[in-house]
Write a structure and sequence with these properties.
Shape: globular
Helix content: 25-40%
Number of strands: 5
Strand content: 15-25%
Radius of gyration: 13 Å
Largest sheet: 3 strands, antiparallel
Length: 87
Amino acid sequence: MKNKKVAKIVVSNTNKKKTSKGDSGSNGVKIDKVLLTIHEVAEIFNLSKFTVYRMLKDGDLQATKIRGSIRVFGRSLERYISDHIIA
């Protein structure tokens, strides 16, 4: 069985205010990969792959297709998390 590296999320509690919508650097949320598979996103959010596909369809996350494989942008995850923080 292979050991797979799963992207990790690093969150630091900096009390800086966002300067613009989608400015993920101001709240300390950082995804360590540029592109993630649907499976990796599902594991990070603890959701089903179906829910991740629905989030893509609804425009909640941004992705690209590389030779038929969908890859979600890490920055898109950072933005989604920062836009949905409950304080």
